[in-house]
Each structure stands twice: as C-alpha cells, then as structure tokens.
Amino acid sequence: MSDQDHYTIEQTSQLLGISAPKLRRWDEQGILGAQRTEGGHRRYPKEVIDRLILANGGAFAEKNSRELASIKKTLAEKRRIIQLLIESEGRYRDLVETSHDLIWQTDTEGRFTYLNAAAHEIFGLAPRDLIGRCFFSFETNGAHVPNRRFLSALRRSGEVQNHVTHLSTARGEDRWIGINARITRDEMGEMLGIRGTARDVTEQHLSSRRAEHVALHDALTDLPNRGALQREVEAALLTGQAGAIVMIDMDHFKRINTVFGHGAGDQLVLGLSGVLRSVARDRKGELFRVGEDQFVLHLPESRREDAQVASAIALDAVQNYRLETAHNRVVSNITASIGVALHPLHGDNWTTLLAAMDAATHQAKDQGRNRVALFNPASDSLRANHRRTQWSRLITEALEQDEIALYVQPAVELRTGIAMHHEIFMRIRDEHGAWAEARQFMGSAESMGYAPALDQRVLTRVLTHIHENSHLPRQRYSLNLSAASISDNAWVRELVDIVKTSDVPGERLVFEVTEKSAMENIDATAAFIDQLRPLGARFALDDFGTGFSSFYYLKRFEVDYLKIHKSFTQDLHDNAESRVFVKAVNGLARDLKRQVVAKGVENAESLKLLKDAGTLYAQGKFLQPVTRLGEVSTATRTRNKKRA
Question: Who has greater pLDDT, 30 or 304?
Fold first, then answer.
C-alpha cells in the first residue's frame, strides 16, 4: 500500500475537519471505509478524500453529508456485488469439483488444460497428471477411427453430443465414456479450445450390448437368430454380393418331442447346432437358428454349385447324427428338408429372398422330405397366386359386406388391475366360415393393397363404438396399423381428417406399429407419429424385441409404449436370457420415459417373473382373454374379482 496514494487518519481528520474518533466510528459503520496497513493503521484513498473536499468547497460539515451517503451507498453496492461474485464462484467450484461427471477443457490441439476431480475415476490419474494429455492418449485400438470421426464432426458443426468412446484407464481397466463437447471461440470466431463434459457409461453400454445379444441370439444354442440373419443378408444385398441362404428344416421334429420329450428335443437341437456349425465353418458360412426346428446357413460369395454341395454335406451330417437321451434311448434316422435360394438371383431384398427360401423348403417337403431343393420360381408362383387369389376374394367380401369382427383385450396395470388401454384385433371369415385372425391374411392383404382399407374400416368402427358408448367410463383403444398404411401419405392425411372430424378426442386412441414395420419404414413411421401426436394420440411399438435394431433406432420414434413380444414372456421360467432381456427393456424404458407392456401372459408364474423384472403393465389370456368388442367374459369378471 503506497503512502503516496493514501492519507493517514490524522491527515484525513485535518482535511475534512472531522475528529479521528468519529472517522473510526464511520469506518466501523461503513460510512467512510478505510484500508489497513500490515501494522493495522487506517489509510484513506486520496482519490476519495480529495473528491469529498472538492464537492464541499473545502469544508466537510457532518450535517451536509449527501455526498458521503452516496459514496457510502456506492461502496456498499460494490462490496455486495463482489461478495455475490465470490459466493457464486464458490458455488460453481463446489458443483464442478464434487460432480460425478467429468468437466474438462482443452487447448486448440485437444490437450487438457483443466479437469475436475472426476478425472481420477475415469482415467485413473489425478487431474494435475492429465494436463497436456488428451482423450486419445487412452483410446483402445478399436476406438481410433470413431474418435477421429468425432473430432472431424466437432470441427465441422462446433458441437457433438453423446459420443461414446472406448478407453483404457491408467490401471488397464476398460471404460466406455460418453462425451459432450463444444468448441469455444473468441470474438473474431477463432478457435480457443474445446470444453465439455463426460461420464462413465460402461455399465449402460455393457447392459445394452447384453440385451442386444439376447435380442439377436437364440437362447438355447446361442446361435444368431432370424433378426441377425436379416441384418447380415441385407448387408450383403446392399453390396450386390452373390451368395446363398440354405434353410435346414428338421423333418417330424414334433414327433421327436412327443416320443422322447421336450428335453430330448432340446438336446437334439443343441447337438445338431454343433454339427451344422462345423459345416458352416468349413464352407466359410455362418449358421443361424430361425425357428424351433429350423436352421439357416448363410453362404456369402457362394454360387449355385457351392450352395448345393454345402447343402448335401449338411443333409448328410443330419442323417448321420445320433443322440443318446438321458434314459439311454437313441434318437436316430433324423432327416431334414433343405431349401436353397440364391441372392440376388432369387431376390434382391430380404422379403423376396426369404419367401424364395421358404418356398424351396416346401418344395423339398412336397417331394418326399430328406432332400435338397433349389428354389423353383414357377412352382412357388403357382402356390402364391392360389393363396393370394383365395384371400383376395375373402377380403373383398368382408369389406363389401362389412363382415369384419372386432375383438378386444386390455393391457392391465399390474399394481391396480386397471386397464390402461384395450387392444383391438380384427378378424374376417375364412373359406370354412370360421373367424380368421389377422396374422393369417394381413400378409396377403398388404401385398394386394387391401391393408389400408381394412385399417380404415377398423378405425371408423372403433370411433363409432366410442361415440355410441360415451355414457360408459372413458376407455382408450389401441389399433394395429399395417406398414402399407403408415407409408401412404394420402392415407395418413385422410386418417388425420377422420380423427379431427369425429367426436372422439385423440387421446382415446393408441396406434400400434410392429417393430419390423417400423424398422423397414423408419422415416414414414416417424412422420406418421409427428402428424398424429398433435391430436393427442399415443403410439406403441409392437412385438418389441423381434426386430434387429430395437435399441439403436428406438430414439427415432417418440412412442409411448413398448409391447414386448410374447416369445419373451412365455418362456421366462426356463429361459434366463428372456428374463435378462425383459429386465433390460424395463430399465431402458424407465430411462427413456416409455411404458412397457408384456404380451402373452398365460399363467401366474410368468406374471410373477414379469413383476420381479420391473414390469408395470401386461396383457394376455391369464389377465383377460380376447373378447368380442362390447362384451366382457364371465371368466374375466371372476378373475378380476378374485384379484381384487
């Protein structure tokens, strides 16, 4: 503190004409503050004292002190602002240093210039030991290319969110880290550095990978499943790569289950999966299990002759397999019907190619089983045309005569037993006069263009039902829509108009789209949801878990409900992987603020396991069987009464 810039208390007293004791009191009261030397002596800034002298013509009378009051107020306000800044900085530092998230800053080269205490948990080093290093100093080999893409995207857009990278800590531990980053710039727009946050997402990442593995692999054999097969074949089709898919369908498998028991059937499937794996490996292919008694061998880069040779080897391997059961009974004389389809010759898309393979397998069965059949387009065309012609007539009659029956089943909140919504099921008469379920004819309806008309008819019937029963408690109805309908912009616009002009609030409706349809029509599905949501409608992703991109594309669709396919709920007791999957979906749904509905609940044991997995809503005949719209079964009333 320089004496040239300050007056002593004696000098100040003399200049202002105020006694030293009064100056001390003013200092203590904050009226005219003084600074202290190391020895504790009061010193007054000359600038302040001189201004007081000038403002008062050389005299400083206590009674005429408005200038002093103003100065006092100004100084007090400055002290208050400084104190607030100090407190704010303290709060900021407390929040930053105690945050579990990593908060970091780098220079223009990406080298750390600041990290908070969370750095130790993520990198295994103290923040001071990380200055000058960067994220890439800890990257694993597999993260090299994605991290370079991350930097490229950051420089291009200035900001990147939720980038997940694979790092190895100083202790050698694997970590998956989620990073948010933003470039900082000066007033001229020049880059100053990068700052952002990061957090350890290892547990979520591994959980998602486990759940995805469950979704893409068969529980019994751990072979990749139908969804994984579709993914691989579609990737090959995109490149125009030639290849073959070979269906290996066990002959009379149900008879084996009946004679030897389901345990023996599982043993047989496991044994054959090992044998066929060897065939796949030797032929540079991959084996998939796509059904209870069906395997598929994918042979990339294989021609007709290669595929037929591989199929003959697989057929021989099945014929020569022997299984000794737990009771020393031998299962032998096992045969298979094998169908072969070539891509892109027999199909340049998944649906067409799958149909060709199925048709070839049926040809093998029709020819006497225990043989290989290459897809014959003429034979399949004849059969397909017959089926389409038959359903075309029945669907046309149902639409013209309005002979479409609507059935209903509620999705129930397990805690209260109250229905959350009621799913609508459509049925029409088959050639024998019986009510056929939608799964029997909707494939043909979509291929022949009838699906939108059927969907619209169901919607208008449901709206009429709601309007005519307005005196009943408010209920929400869930309608299944086909891929053909939601992909038709004109149909969607008409649907919006129908809902708008009806007397039914949009929130009384839930529109369901199967996961398979949503994955095949991503943009159309998202656009459909965007158009209907403003009306209050809700949305469900049906048959969740059967597709091949469940978790990756879920963020694209703002759905309210995820309806788990019944294949995961009906084997919970015997299938640990299904339990893991259901638990994972419930956890994911909670984080994404979706509601999960488990379908196909058929017994009390399954219901208990679903509750244990965190499921809040369920649907199935154990809770309430499917009934005709407007009817409530006696069994349902009795069961609900007992549960209450």
Answer: 304
